[in-house]
Every structure is written in C-alpha cells, then in structure tokens.
Amino acid sequence: MQSGKVSDTPLEFIVEYLSKAKEIADGNPNIPQELTNNLKKALDIASGLDGYLEAMSSQESQPLAELYRKTMDHDWQKVHEEGTTLFRLPKECITGHLEGQVLKTLVRICKARRILEIGMFTGYGALSMAEGLPEDGRLIACELEPYLKEFAKPIFDKSPHGKKITVKTGPAMDSLKELAAAGEQFDLVFIDADKSNYISYYKFLLDNNLLRMDGLICVDNTLFKGKVYLQGETDENGLALRDFNRFVRDDPRVEQVIVPVRDGISLIQRLPWTSAGKESKNTVTPDEVFRGAQGKSILDRLRLDDRVAYVTGAGQGIGRGFAHALGEAGAKVAVVDLDREKAEKVVEELTLKGVQSMAVTADISKPDDVQRMIDAILSKWGTIHIACNNAGVNMNSASEDTSLEEWDQTFGVNLRGTFMCCQAVGRVMLKQGYGKIINTASMASLIVPHPQKQLSYNTSKAGVVKLTQTLGTEWIDRGVRVNCISPGIVDTPLIHSESLRPLVQRWLSDIPAGRLAQVTDLQAAVVYLASDASDYMTGHNLVIEGGQSLW
Ligand SMILES: C[S@@+](CC[C@H](N)C(=O)[O-])C[C@H]1O[C@@H](n2cnc3c(N)ncnc32)[C@H](O)[C@@H]1O
C-alpha cells in the first residue's frame, strides 16, 4: 500500500494491522523471534498481492492511465467547497487498473453489447468496459454529479472507445425508470453507487427485465472492508451490503458468487427458467418451446461445438466464408482446395481465431483424391459430421458452341465431383447414423441467368439440386440430412474482371435487393444447415439471391 493511502479493502486492512503488529513485535525484545518471523511472512504475502495482480494483468490503455492520474491529482475537496460537486467525492472510489481489467474481461466473456453502469465517478470503469465492447456496443453510465460528466469528457474523447459511452446525469433510480420505460435491456450491469440503495437498484433491474436472459450484474464493494461479515458492526453501509448479499443469495432468479478482488465484486447471473421458473407463481407451459429443445436456447442450438466439418473449394470466396462460419460456430474445419497454398492461408486465418483446422489438397473431380480427403480427415479427427461440397467451376459459351470438353469438365467438378463427395462422406455418415451434407448449388438451378451464356454450369447446378433432393430423402431416416444452398451472384474478385464488369450493372437491375451477394450473406445459412436446429430439413434448396429469382 502507498504511504498515506487510506485502507479501503479487507486486504489493505490486513496489511495495515499486520504492519502495526510487526512494528510492535520489532520494538519488543520479549516477543519470541518465531512470532516476528511469522508476522513478517504473513505481511509479505498480504502486501505483495495487489501489486502482483496489477502487474500481471494486461496493461491499462493510455487514456485509462491518464484518467487515473487526473482523478488522483484533482483537488476534490476544493471543487466540493466551491459548490461544484454536491458531495465531497473520495478519489479512492475509482475502480482502478485491476478491477477495470476484471470488468473488461467480463464484458468480453459475456460478449456484452449493451452495458449499464450505476455510479460512474470519473469514468475509469466505464472506459474499461467500453474497451471490451465491440464497435457497435454501447454503455450508459448513470452519474449523480453533472461535474463528473464534464471531467471525464476530454479523456473519453481521446479514446477510440469513448464514443460508445453515454452519460446520464441525475439520481440513478430516475434514469433506471426512464430506461425501463424506453424498453431498454442490458447484457451486463455494473452497480457501484449509493450502497444503501443497491437492493432497490437490483430489484428494479430484475423486476423490470432490464437485464437480458443470462445477463450478468457485477456489484462493487460487496465485502465492504470486511464489515459484511465482522461481528458487532454498526456501519450503515456495511449492514446494507450484508442484507444485500443475503437477499441476492436467496433470490431464485439468479446465481451469485463474491470474488475477493479489491473490496469484493459480486457476480450475479440471471438464470434461465429451469431453476428460477420453478419458483414462478405464473402458470407456464414447461414444454420444449418454453425450455428450448434439449434445454437449449435457439442460439445455442446453432452452435457446432465438437463437430468435424470439411469445406471443398475453401481456399477462397464462398468456401472460405463457409469455413470461417463453421469454425466461428465451434466446429473443427478441414479446408479443402486444389491449391495447397490457398488452403494453408485459410488454415492460418482460422488458427489465428482459435479454430482447429487442417489443410487438405484435393481435386474433387478425381475419385482417388476424394477418398484421400475423407481418409485424411478421419485419420486426424476420427469422424466427419458436416460436409460442405462447395467446389465448382463456371465456364461461359453459347450453347451452340459449347464443347464436350467444357461440358465434361463442368459436370466433372460440379455434379460428378459433388456426387463422389456425397457418396464417400455419406458412407461414413450412414455408418455413424449422423451427418449434415450441404452442397453448393446456384440460383442458376432455378432461373437462366443472363446475358452471359453458361449452359453447362446451369444444367450441372440443376443436377446438384436433384442430387440433393434424392439423397436428402433416401438418407434422412438413417440420420443423414442433405440440403443445398443456391447463392445469387456473389461479389468476388472474379466479378470485377475486365470481361464481367460491364455485366454488373445489368445484373443489379435484376436484383430486388439492389446489390450483389456478399460471401457473408451466406454464412448463417451454412451454420443453420450444419446445426441440429435444421434437423427436420432435408432435400431443400435454400435460395439466397436478394430476390433475383422472383423477378
Ligand atoms: C464508487 S463511485 C463509482 C466509481 C466508478 N464506477 C469507477 O469506475 O471509478 C460512486 C459514484 O456514484 C455516484 N452516485 C452516488 N449516488 C448516486 C445516485 N443516487 N445516482 C447516481 N450516481 C450516484 C457518485 O457521485 C460517485 O461518482
């Protein structure tokens, strides 16, 4: 602890009392050396802890460091005496580096996008949490003192994350009522003002659904210098927090743990209905709609954890988009491409994101390559749950000029190759009684895209749809679903080539959505078809073309 600093947390009090005890022991020759030695050991452990935790936590950003210095250097006594602040604000109430980093980490873990802070002070906690938010995330900070909004503003303005923060001045309860009336909801709430009112804030948040399903409430100072558990305490705030901690522990709607960081942070998570709903006085129909199929919420049902997938043609374009989407949803992904270098590059991208992946080189128009691809995946991961047969080629020629070579090459990859992949992986999936096959067809299976001429492509893709329908019905009763995705015209580098660029304007006038498809427009579909959420869907052609086939 810095000299002259007032003790504020249980640990700081322990250090203070141990230091005093050691001083007494040092000055008294009658105290056994063993006692002095033990006091010293206890003091070393206690006094080193906070500093070590701070030193080992990620470094604070420059704006946060500046905010901390500015808060510490400010004359809070003076601004209060001048009547600028309603209360004399103690600078110790700042959250600081360690707690700020805890909050920021929680924001990331919860994937929070909307945060509410009750009690902003100079904004250290607010800015720490804002740093953990995504670009479109936002944080509303409630603060009684208008002066603090002005104090924090120049530093919020300097930080790239400051724009995510909106400060609402005035009593927090008024702001909470406004937010509830406006139908706002938060993923994470940090309560850090006005200890005697913690319980009212907490009740208001839960009773008015200001906290989303599974949302997290963090509450500061819930150990309150140890006063919540010390016998004979009379401190009003300490007793209020003691009641608060008990109240929350006994509330069936949530689960609570108090983490002994600094002055104690309570982590309170809103439970799904399963536990809390039992206490509900309202009549609920506890069926799968209410509880979620297999007890999972719809978003959880889209997750692909522990699944093994492959994507052919994954070195670029749609296939690369599919590989990223499946990986982000939790699957291990084999990135299959003709071009080893491209496949390895995508594997590198996935590895950076923490997705387990492998590169496989294969020409899917060759039966031996197809089998080698399946064997390589099986030998690494032992199974295949998701097969994205996406590799395809497209050549243009007027039908009267289409050569048999072009026809054979196109069909060799687009239809024969897709069939060979379906068959090879289908054998594995039928044996294990589970599998999801997703073929890439095309809008060209439905309409005749023009003005470009591409007979072999169109007919091969129509074949992919029929292949999908046939396999989808033949295999569903053995646990294997086969579906396909038909993208419209996708904005890839190819489209911007000299020869195709003039066609883009023409295509755009045929697309109700007014734009070409981006690879990212197709990603949710592949995750859906790969997940258990689509189990009743088979033989389906999922068309994603901005409405083009309807005009
Ligand atoms: C412990 S400090 C907050 C520290 C802050 N969370 C941080 O990250 O540094 C408490 C703040 O709550 C504010 N406050 C107190 N009573 C309030 C109320 N009724 N409504 C809104 N803010 C209040 C105080 O002005 C003070 O700035």
Give structural notes.
By secondary structure, this protein is α/β, with parallel strands linked by helices. It has 3 domains: 10-56; 62-272, Rossmann fold (3-Layer(aba) Sandwich); 299-550, 3-Layer(aba) Sandwich (Rossmann fold), CATH 3.40.50.720. Helix content is 45%, strand content 15%. It has 20 helices and 14 strands. It has helices at residues 10-26, 33-56, 62-73, 76-81, 96-109, 124-132, 146-158, 172-181, 198-207, 236-249, 273-276, 288-291, 298-301, 317-328, 340-352, 367-381, 404-432, 455-475, 501-508, 523-530; strands at 114-118, 138-143, 165-169, 186-191, 211-220, 254-259, 265-270, 308-312, 332-337, 357-361, 386-389, 435-440, 480-487, 541-544. The strands form 2 sheets. The protein has a 7-stranded mixed sheet with strand order 3-2-1-4-5-7-6, sandwiched between helices. The protein has a 7-stranded parallel sheet with strand order 10-9-8-11-12-13-14, sandwiched between helices. Helix 5 (96-109) runs parallel beside helix 6, helix 8 runs parallel beside helix 9 (198-207) and helix 16 (367-381) runs parallel beside helix 17 (404-432). It starts with 9 loop residues before the first helix and ends in a 7-residue tail after the last strand. The mean pLDDT is 95. The structure holds S-adenosylmethionine (SAM). Residues 89, 93-95, 119-121, 124-125, 142-145, 148, 171-172, 192-194 line the site of S-adenosylmethionine. S-adenosylmethionine binds at residues 89, 93-95, 119-121, 124-125, 142-145, 148, 171-172, 192-194. It is an enzyme of class 1 (oxidoreductase). Pfam families: adh_short_C2, Methyltransf_3. One of its GO terms (biological process) is carbohydrate metabolic process. This is D-arabinitol 2-dehydrogenase [ribulose-forming]. Pathway: Carbohydrate metabolism; D-arabinitol metabolism; Lipid metabolism; fatty acid biosynthesis.
